[in-house]
Structure formats: structure tokens, C-alpha cells
UniProtKB/TrEMBL annotation:
PROSITE patterns, per database record: CENP_V_GFA
Keywords of this entry: Lyase, Metal-binding, Zinc
Tagged with keyword Metal-binding: yes
Database matches in SUPFAM superfamilies: Mss4-like (SSF51316)
Name assigned to this protein: GFA family protein
Species for this entry: Pseudooceanicola albus
């Protein structure tokens, strides 16, 4: 997969990512749950330089969303851009490699088979 595309509900805010993501994960923390209005958040994390964003956007604590439809499509942190898996044009491109904040996971939600499980944040890379 060379190019990944996606965007918001109304189509005004778009992104294009080149190459493979650095990692793919799920987060169950309260911030992610509140931001997305969902019981978990899933993202493919790219180097910021590998992602091009076009169209109008608004921001809140690194989260980027469409000011028209409110669609949350990505987050930016330092030199990385997290593309929300739900905003991708093509579903089922990535499988999560890890889960964060599993202490907050809903009891009825099973762990992702084969994904590393972290009670809170994942260990920092060296």
C-alpha cells in the first residue's frame, strides 16, 4: 500500500498519507473516548512529513476536525500524525498492533487477538 486517503463526513477536510504507518493502535483512555464519543479510538500513526492535509480545519489539543461537519479525522503530536481509522476511505486496511489503557476497556469488549496489551500508556521507544 503506497497511498492512504481519507477525510471528514462532508468531504471538505481531506488527507493523503504516503507509505506504511509507523504503528497502528487502539486507545481506551477517557480523553479518546470523550473526544470520539465512542468506547475506543483506533489510529494509524505516520511520520508527520508523510501526511498531507487539505481543506478547512479546527483544532483542540492536537486533535484536528472539520469545522463544518465536526468530523474528527486526525491528531497531531510532535513529529507524528495519527490518522483515525474510521476516517479512511477504504476500510480494513490496518490491524491494530497494540491496545492502550486496557484498564478502561469495556468489559464486554474482547482484546484484539495478537495485539500487545498495555494497562495504561505504551512504553516509550528508545
Amino acid at each position: 500500500m503506497d497511498t492512504v486517503t481519507g477525510g471528514c463526513l462532508c468531504g471538505a477536510l481531506r488527507f493523503v498519507a504516503q507509505g506504511a504507518p509507523r504503528r497502528v493502535g487502539i486507545c481506551h483512555c477517557l480523553d479518546c473516548r470523550k473526544h470520539h464519543g465512542a468506547v475506543f479510538y483506533a489510529a494509524a500513526v505516520y511520520a508527520a512529513a508523510d501526511v498531507t492535509v487539505t481543506g478547512p480545519s479546527a483544532r483542540y489539543r492536537g486533535r484536528v476536525f472539520c469545522p463544518t461537519c465536526g468530523g474528527s479525522v486526525l491528531a497531531q503530536s510532535g513529529a507524528e500524525t495519527e490518522l483515525h481509522l474510521g476516517s479512511l476511505d477504504q476500510p480494513d486496511l490496518f490491524r491494530p498492533q497494540y491496545e492502550l489503557w486496557t484498564c478502561r476497556r469495556e468489559s464486554w469488549l474482547a482484546p484484539v487477538p495478537g495485539a500487545a496489551q498495555h494497562d495504561r500508556d505504551r512504553p516509550r521507544e528508545a
